[in-house]
Amino acid sequence: MAERILIDGRNLTLDDVRAVALDRAPVALAKEARGRIEASRRVIDHILESGRVVYGVNTGFGKLAEVKISPDQVTALQRNLVCSHACGTGEPFRPEIVRAMLLLRANVLASGFAGCRPVVVERLLAMLDAGVHPLIPSQGSVGASGDLAPLAHLALPLIGEGEAFHAGRRLPGAEAMRRAGIEPLELEAKEGLALINGTQASAAVAALAAGRARRLVDAADVVCALSLEACLGTDAAFDPAIHAARPHPGQVESARRLRELLAGSRIRQSHAECTRVQDAYSLRCAPQVHGAARDALAHLEQVLTIEINAATDNPMVFPDGRVISGGNFHGAPIAVPIDSLAIALTDLASISERRLARLVDPALSGLPPFLTPQPGLNSGFMMVQVTAAALVSELKTLAHPASVDSIPTSAGQEDHVSMSTWAARKLDRITAITQTVLGLEYLAAVQGVEFHRPLRSSAPLERAIETLRRKAPRLEGDRIMHADMDAAAGLIPRIARLP
């Protein structure tokens, strides 16, 4: 079993999020966090005792903030809030995303600025450990006041409402909790608001997508090196002196990896004295394009590391008794870098498709047309490149930034929103499509390299070739390519670990 992760609202890592979401690592509340939560709750209790009017504690919400709620209705107010805001629609989020959301919301509450009781955090963690995954529709959030609709759906089973998945079955929320042996809660003052204000849907989707993107940028270097070998290209453009003169970290790293991947190649040595001066941009400029994706990813991971340990509640409850309304729920800080990575990955897929297009064109590659030994009788990789072109065109549409859009909500009270959830959902889709495009280049590049046999490439690239050939045999004559394409795309995360 994976090691138990302690949450304290301050020190959660992206690796922790992925461990809980994907590997089901157990989670517990840190002792020091409990003390902060209790101190925050005492502030709320004092407000109720004093009769002081505070937004979200004993008032309505949003445009209804001026409506005062009587003490005997405070509990009903919180339940109503959760139920009324559960207005999501569309396909449910995948289980791993829901798990990440549960963890991130619990970690926000553990920071001690929400005014809830410790038991609220403990029940969220109990749901994680028991595998109670609320059914959360993926559409309906504008990313301010945070991810209200998705987080309301997340909170429904906690109060015995909504639906949840447990042990592979879709059940009413109350029944899922009963089977897991978890008692639903009656929310007290401020606790409904504490559960639904924040960016945890956006951040959860983005955190998992960023993890996949990390493997994509590494794999892109591998498939590029294979394409370079197939086209008898040169590694001169990867010389460290070039990249030291323009030291963007991602560019330097991709150039280093390409040099390492190509080191010792007999194919490269076979044409070392050829007359070609330089390769096309899709080969020669790979470190610059791949590096831009690396840098965009690094920035997003830096931002997300801050966000997953940030208090995104409203109002904020401070231990000194202050309760201050602000805007920490607004998703702009993460929406912009999410969009940036989406654009960079689209460019990564675009340059991959251009290398694939070179591979199938004999005038550009020097290889047989469409990488088939019998062109004419066979179409070979003709339609593989067409599919890649279609996917890249789709990516270009998806890459349009969500963060530049805004639409007023809540009768004009929430008059500028971030669209961070849509940005994250698009990034999730973009990572999947980019993986497929890289898989198609991988499939074609290996076919191209094998036309140079008996010459062999470098040790790591030969491992990449062997990995593919265990799943997809060499194309000698036309056959249905769908299974081969899926196999190659599925292997992209594995070859990312090379060399």
What does this protein look like?
The structure is a single chain. The protein is mostly helical and 499 residues long. It folds into two domains: 5-198, Fumarase/aspartase (N-terminal domain) (Fumarase C, Chain B, domain 1), CATH 1.10.275.10; 206-495, Fumarase C, Chain A, domain 2 (Up-down Bundle), CATH 1.20.200. It is built from 20 helices and nine strands. It has helices at 14-23, 31-50, 74-85, 95-110, 118-130, 148-155, 173-180, 191-196, 200-230, 240-244, 249-262, 266-270, 281-284, 286-307, 332-360, 362-365, 382-398, 420-450, 459-469, 482-495; strands spanning 5-7, 27-29, 89-92, 133-134, 137-139, 163-166, 169-172, 316-317, 323-324. The strands form four sheets. The protein has a three-stranded antiparallel sheet with strand order 4-6-7. A two-stranded parallel ribbon has the order 1-2.
Tell me the total number of β-strands. 9
**So what's the CATH class of the largest domain?**
Mainly Alpha
Major sheet: size, sense and barrel closure? 3 strands, antiparallel
H and E order = EHEHHEHHEEHEEHHHHHHHHEEHHHHHH
Strand arrangement in the largest pleated sheet: 4-6-7
Please name the defining characteristics of this protein.
499 residues, mainly alpha, Fumarase C, Chain B, domain 1, Fumarase C, Chain A, domain 2, three-stranded antiparallel sheet, elongated
Question: What topology does this entry show?
Answer:
Elements: E1 5-7, H1 14-23, E2 27-29, H2 31-50, H3 74-85, E3 89-92, H4 95-110, H5 118-130, E4 133-134, E5 137-139, H6 148-155, E6 163-166, E7 169-172, H7 173-180, H8 191-196, H9 200-230, H10 240-244, H11 249-262, H12 266-270, H13 281-284, H14 286-307, E8 316-317, E9 323-324, H15 332-360, H16 362-365, H17 382-398, H18 420-450, H19 459-469, H20 482-495
Parallel strand pairs: 1-2
Antiparallel strand pairs: 3-5, 4-6, 6-7, 8-9
Helix pairs in contact: 1-4, 1-9, 3-6, 4-5, 4-9, 9-11, 9-14, 9-15, 9-18, 9-20, 11-14, 14-15, 15-17, 15-18, 17-18, 18-20
